[in-house]
Please model this.
Amino acid sequence: VVVSPGAVHVPGWLGLPRQRELVGRCREWVRSPAGMRKHRTPTGGRMSVAMASLGWFWEPYSYSRTLPDGTPVPPFPPELGELARAGVAAAYGHAPEPESPGYDVALVNFYDAEARMGMHQDREERADAPVVSLSVGDTCVFRFGNTETRGRPYTDVELRSGDLFVFGGPSRMAYHGVPRTRPGSADPDCGLASGRLNVTIRATGFG
Ligand code: MD5
Ligand code: FE
Model:
């Protein structure tokens, strides 16, 4: 389903076995020091979504090569690069451009029942490769907006467990957010007892 040019929703792309496998791998990847963190924002708030970074460390609003204590960031799992390329192929009908920088960072986001993500752009990357987003667990309302403002016009899309969403081309810099999840909506066999897991795979272009 094309939501906007370059923004493609593929419901149910990951079957239940692959959802459970992704949850299991994420549990391993986010063991400390990768650690799930609720980042502080520059305005003094705290994000309600817990995040872990693989490959490059993201915090509001830049990437770094090291964790805040100076230790290396856990590596980007090559299998996530493969998954991202397969996701782009599934969404667009062709593989990503081979000359574009490779996928090198993944953000593992966990939403509990109260977590929300305000409208924002993902603009910390230098590369323009599509962002690949995978969802497991509770359904969420994903608000997909425009490239000019945080406000309308936007489209609300329900992202369910197993869904793939690819953002590229003219949609790459669109504002987007998660105004709510639907607690208890997940298939009990997805591998998560509660909450929502979102893995976004990106190319930083930083080499
Ligand atoms: C989520 N996470 O469902 C979303 C999925 C985030 C985040 O927004 O930053 O971790 S990723 C949606 C996304 C990513 C990159 C670009 C665009 C949307 N976009 O251009 O609209 O928890
Ligand atoms: Fe985002």
